[in-house]
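ENTRY TYPE: protein
WANTED: fold as C-alpha cells:
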Amino acid sequence: MRKKHYRGAVFLDRDGVINVDRRHYVKSWSEFKFLPSVFEALRLLKKNDIRVIIVTNQSAVNRGLMTLDILLGIHEKMLEAIRKHGGEIQAIYYCHHTPAENCECRKPKPGLVLRAVKDLKIDLSRSYLVGDSEKDLELARSLRVKCVWITERSTKKISSRVTQWTHRHPLSAKSLCEAVDRILHDIQALNLP
C-alpha cells in the first residue's frame, strides 16, 4: 500500500480484540484463546509497516489472581505466536492496578497511550485505537484518535448519523480483521505518510 514509513500507530486493546475476553480474567496461557482472523489482521498491518501497540488493563495481577511473572509469560507466548504467523507487536503497555487504586495508567485514562507515544515517538494525530469496551471509546475520545469498536451488537444508531469518521464517532466492526480493513482504507484515502 505504501512505501513511506507510517508515523502513526494502531493501538489495540487485548481482551476481546486479540483474544477471547473471559468474565473472570485470563489468568494463564491455557485460558488465552486467539479470536478468529487475528493473525491475518496483524499480518496486514505488518505488511503495511504500521506499528501495533497493545494497551490493556490487567488488574488480575493486583487483585491477587495471578502474578506479574504469569502475565509477562502470557504476553511472551502471545508475541511468539503472532510472530510465527507473520505479525508483529511493537510493544505492550499494561496497567496492573485495580480501579480503586485510581492510577493514571488504567484505561480510560490516557497514561498507557501517552507513555507509548513518548517512548516510541508516535504521531497521535495519525493513530487509531481498536477496542471492545466503553473505556476504549472514552480513551479514543480523550486522545482525539479515530476508534473502531469491536462489537457483535448493532451499532446502527452510531453509523446512521455519522457522515465522517472522527474521534467522536467510532466505526464498528465484528472482528479485528474488519477493523484493520477500515483503518487501511482510511490511511489510503487520506494519503497519510
The first helix runs from residue 38 to 47. Confidence is low (pLDDT under 50) at residues 154-162. The chain has one domain: 9-190. Strands lie at 9-12, 51-57, 91-95, 128-131, 146-150, 171-173.
